[in-house]
Recover the amino acids of this structure.
């Protein structure tokens, strides 16, 4: 039984969340792996970031090919690869280099499911309502990352870290089966225009509104993925400064899950606000707000608990409020025959920043004296804030067409 309309949107949101159960397993368990494998902060940053290096290497090829063939086949193969990569980590990873290999392969699997899944969805939806569907779908990336953090913490506490990766593998395999059963292949259809080379991004680069949202997305991902990669480790440091948190029975992974789950309503609501009041203006305000908090967040781990919690909650909302609006802006601004190439460049630049920011964060931590030093956390978070501040500048220069 093939699903259509909002049922299809719901299905692909579900498969995205299931397929991402292994997404944040390593970052959530950095406090476990650092003593276990004697990893420095820089090495932990490499393993966290190399996942998105795999994504960045594969996404231009996989997503651009969806302009020429149905995205469904690529999606299914990528679910399989993602599951095998997580299973390989569970069974064979024993240190820095083996972890790098399996996380790189996992990132390739994500490249063929997240943005390819968005193309699979947009190809099967009418133009009306597409922006809202895109925002809902992209918001579920945050849900997937959140539940991955939660599963990693809970499963590791019950059965050990390897079983946390097994759970991630099972999620990918279930996603594969759901798409096989419920998503019908598209019938071949003639192209609207004879394309030049398959990977010719020059027409995409000439589309200034789409390029503005793509570069803005890279600034957003720089901040977001650095935050996600090091959030649990930061909360371990916060717990040491705030005994009341530990006394309340919370674990760092549970608090991180709560903060990340705020991304779903924030991203959907952010897109609605941007659609109503001007996408460029609203996205810029969200970026300025989240970047301003990042400049101070690392320095206030020992602040009064009520203040710290309030800042974290607001940051958890603001850091995701522009995500759906940026991706929807790029999809809407893209030429229909170049939508796959536009999304490929969008993902390439965005997740390229997502590869670099966890690594840069780890380097700053090492230079600042390590995870036990408040100044090190302060400077590392400030680096994320400075990066996201480039987003409003880019949007001001390139996106000047009405609500674009």
């Amino acid at each position: 039984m093939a699903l259509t309309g909002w049922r299809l949107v719901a299905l692909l949101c579900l498969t995205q969340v299931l397929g991402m159960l292994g997404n944040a397993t390593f970052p959530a368990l950095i406090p476990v792996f650092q003593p276990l494998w004697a990893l420095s902060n820089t090495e932990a940053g490499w393993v966290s970031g190399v996942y998105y290096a795999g994504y960045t290497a594969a996404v231009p090829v996989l997503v651009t090919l969806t302009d020429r063939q149905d995205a469904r086949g690529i999606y299914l193969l990528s679910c399989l690869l993602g599951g095998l990569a997580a299973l390989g980590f569970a069974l064979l990873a024993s240190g820095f280099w083996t972890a790098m290999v399996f996380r790189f392969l996992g990132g390739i699997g994500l490249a063929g499911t997240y943005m390819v899944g968005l193309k699979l969805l947009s190809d099967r939806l009418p133009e009306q309502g597409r922006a809202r569907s895109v925002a809902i779908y992209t918001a579920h990336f945050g849900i997937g990352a959140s539940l991955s953090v939660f599963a990693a913490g809970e499963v590791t506490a019950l059965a050990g870290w390897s079983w946390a990766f097994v759970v991630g593998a099972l999620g990918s395999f279930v996603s594969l089966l759901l798409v096989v059963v419920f998503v019908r292949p598209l019938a071949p259809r003639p192209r609207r225009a004879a394309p030049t080379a398959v990977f010719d991004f020059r027409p995409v680069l000439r589309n200034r509104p789409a390029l503005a949202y793509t570069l803005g997305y890279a600034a957003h991902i720089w901040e977001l993925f650095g935050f996600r990669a090091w959030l649990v480790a930061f909360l371990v440091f916060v717990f040491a400064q705030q005994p009341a948190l530990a006394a309340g029975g919370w674990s760092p992974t549970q608090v991180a899950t709560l903060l990340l789950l705020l991304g779903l309503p924030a991203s959907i609501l952010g897109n609605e606000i941007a659609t109503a009041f001007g996408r460029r203006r609203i996205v810029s305000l969200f970026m300025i707000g989240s970047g301003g908090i990042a400049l101070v967040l690392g320095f206030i781990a020992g602040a009064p608990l009520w203040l710290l919690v309030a800042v974290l909650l607001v940051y958890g909302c603001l850091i995701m409020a522009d995500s759906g609006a940026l991706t929807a802006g790029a999809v809407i601004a893209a030429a229909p025959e170049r939508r796959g190439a536009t999304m490929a460049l969008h993902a390439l630049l965005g997740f390229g920043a997502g590869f670099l920011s966890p690594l840069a964060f780890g380097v700053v931590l090492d230079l600042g004296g390590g995870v036990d030093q408040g100044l090190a956390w302060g400077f590392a978070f400030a680096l994320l804030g400075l990066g996201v501040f480039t987003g409003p500048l880019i949007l001001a220069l390139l996106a000047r067409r009405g609500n674009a």
